[in-house]
Design a protein that fits this description.
133 residues; 3 helices; 6 strands
Length: 133
């Protein structure tokens, strides 16, 4: 499991009922994956500077219970499958009571010059550290 990502939920992220707006769950998961890349020495900007892009190909998700304004949530991310052309993540979002509120499986494809491409050895070594963390 990658180091957990924690975040407070603010009012601007919530719908009129005070729940985290559905679209913001994916933003939080993206932030957690981005932080994971920073933690293994391969921040997103460095990847972009090298010409790499990572595009979400598929998402499966389930909303279990609502997250409300001022909740502090924790995302636990696990790379289920690391391949040189794609990655498959399981991400779970918990409230401050430790209750599972949401989960998603994210399938990502690695793209260089507009085409799915195997990552370089340098990037691959960083990715392997995700599995070891």
């Amino acid at each position: 499991m990658v180091k957990p990502y924690r975040k407070r939920i603010y009012a601007y992220e919530c719908d009129l009922y005070g729940h985290l707006h559905n679209t913001n769950y994916l933003d939080i998961l993206e932030a957690a994956r981005s932080d994971a890349l920073v933690d293994v020495g391969m921040p997103v900007q460095q990847l972009l500077d090298m010409g790499w892009h990572f595009y979400i190909r598929r998402v499966e998700m389930e909303f279990i219970q609502g997250v409300r304004v001022d909740d502090v949530v924790e995302v636990r991310s696990v790379p289920l499958e690391l391949k040189k052309v794609r990655t498959h993540w399981k991400q779970e979002l918990f409230n401050q009571a430790g209750e599972l509120c949401f989960w998603a499986e994210i399938h990502v494809v690695h793209v260089f010059e507009g085409k799915p491409t195997r990552v370089t050895d340098e990037i691959w070594e960083s990715f392997k550290r995700l599995a070891d963390s």
